[in-house]
Amino acid sequence: MAATKHTMKMPELLVFAKMFVVGLVAAEVCRTTYYLGTAFVPAIADFPLWAKAIPVLIGLAVCVVRAFGHDVEAWCRTK
User: Fold this and answer.
1) How far apart are CA 79 and CA 46, in angstroms?
2) What are the start-end ranges of the H helices in the chain?
């Protein structure tokens, strides 16, 4: 009695199609962000430096607090 081998189907086309769609979505997100940025920068060109820097520093502080809240420091020590 001969045992039959079960072979996996090659999902190459599906994998390539999925990565193509993910790449297209990422490209559209980057393009939209670029267009919004080019429209927004001239609008805030006359703002003082402190008014531009405060939102950036707040965003950075949120990222740092969130990182330490998720115990990233301990994760970094293990690497």
Assistant:
1) 45
2) 12-40, 49-69, 72-78
